[in-house]
């Protein structure tokens, strides 16, 4: 069987073993209506860069990713140049069990073929389990920070052996920044340290051929990890670029130019508006640390792996939405006398609630009687909390929408908003009208039993104003829209304190009975 035939058979056998649905997951909305992407382990990110923001709770995904390269004269054995090819398959499961945790479990199957050296070699590693745990949270508008713990247990290629002392541990700090909505860009930064125990896979690495050491990626040095990535999100695709540098550290470590350094160009694509199915395609170019003939041996007992000059990665993923949960929301219309109950709305991962705060533009005080309406949504007049001016909608479709915010005494405000699962709480400022219509406070003061109290007085402490009543106990007063304290009293009767809200152009009725 020829070399080309053997490589084709190798690639086909691994591809046929992966026909189960696969996933690196999906991502949450970016600044526009678009969605981000995930990296091959299933965590939210790009190719090797991990994003600091998290998938929504209940997110679950499965998937598979394939990496291939073939390079002539990559290795040297017994003075002879050797060609090398590799096919790696990664099968992953990703899960977000809680709001601040994202986890991924993967199994790597790696096949390496070396030809043209003293002897042809084919090594296959069945194993390499990997577990990754990530947390993250928002710290400002468009900025998320987080942390990553990644554990990989390599198996010695060609030896089918696992060793706990060979564990690779990556600890990294994560940061993600989203540009304003008009510019759908996301930038990611990973800084961490890789503890590499791969040289413990075998008792004597020097007894291995260069091809075997390259296949196992055996290293005597730990590494600093620095990754930077930028993605641009359109409606159906998300092109990205990332730089991955991993300088070796420790006594006798290779220089930065001999340490792994790669530049990746890739794109994520979605085949439908729900973004359940995601495709990944990327090419990775070796910038530094590329093998040229003697890639492994630095000294008799010191080794540092090299990377291929290029690698092609293809991935297929499918995300599962969180389980639906029916929620009933009470929504108030500005003109309704009683609250109206909306229909049960199932929670879906492509929906999110919209939150905000309504304040007066001149004082930053909450506007207690504001109403927020959402364009195109029935029963969407949302009342704000009187003490804070805050409001929160029921789950809405992700993407841009328009709000209309109104309140007596203020100019109506029309504003653009973006519904996102991790969107910030926006602040909307209403400007007072230069001229406003007054409201009317009207009522009757009587004694217990119904007799009118012509001697009663009505005091408004906020205005330092006292009003008398007529012979029938009637009073009437025009007031600017707002909230007022009212004290009603009469000689030999216990006073009563009331709080009323006066609306523009409306009449508030306040009838009071006084007791001795």
How does this structure look, described?
This protein has about 525 residues and is mainly β. The chain has 3 domains: about 5-320, Porin, CATH 2.40.160; about 350-430, Immunoglobulin-like (Sandwich), CATH 2.60.40; about 440-515, Carboxypeptidase-like, regulatory domain (Immunoglobulin-like, Sandwich), CATH 2.60.40.1120. The protein is built from 2 helices and 36 strands. It has a 12-stranded antiparallel β-barrel. The chain has a 4-stranded antiparallel beta sheet with strand order 23-22-26-27, with no helix packed on it. A hairpin with an 8-residue loop joins β17 and β18 (about 340). The longest helix has 14 residues, at about 5-15. Residues about 1-35 and about 325-350 have low confidence and may be disordered.
Which characteristics define this entry?
Immunoglobulin-like, single chain, Porin, mainly beta, rod-shaped, 3 domains, disordered N terminus, 4% helix, 516 residues
